Amino acid sequence: MVHDRTNGNDLSLTHEFMSVMLGVRRPRVTETLHVLEGKGYIRSSRGKTTVLNRVGLIEDAGGYYGVAEQEYENLMNII
């Protein structure tokens, strides 16, 4: 969702900030980023994550990506 709202593929986010946004412990963010790196979807370094394969990320989300986005779109069309 952050990638949807930024220009380019570089996301300047710390693991700590991602953990707060997602409501999970910071080590879990680090573990998950390592898994996504292993699949070739992202490259992650200190305070920066680069999206390499957006299609792969969306497919790996298994249908969960897009639900919140659609609700946001519905809400914004109402206002």
From TrEMBL:
Q: What is the lineage of its organism?
A: Bacteria, Pseudomonadati, Pseudomonadota, Alphaproteobacteria, Hyphomicrobiales
What is the superkingdom listed in this entry's lineage?
Bacteria
What species was this sequence derived from? Phyllobacterium myrsinacearum
Q: Give a GO molecular function annotation for the protein.
A: DNA binding
Q: Which GO terms describe its biological process?
A: regulation of DNA-templated transcription
User: What would be one Pfam family of this protein?
Assistant: HTH_Crp_2
Describe the location of the HTH crp-type domain by residue ranges: 9-58
Q: By its UniProt entry, which InterPro entries does this protein fall under?
A: HTH_CRP, WH-like_DNA-bd_sf, WH_DNA-bd_sf
Protein name listed in UniProt:
HTH crp-type domain-containing protein
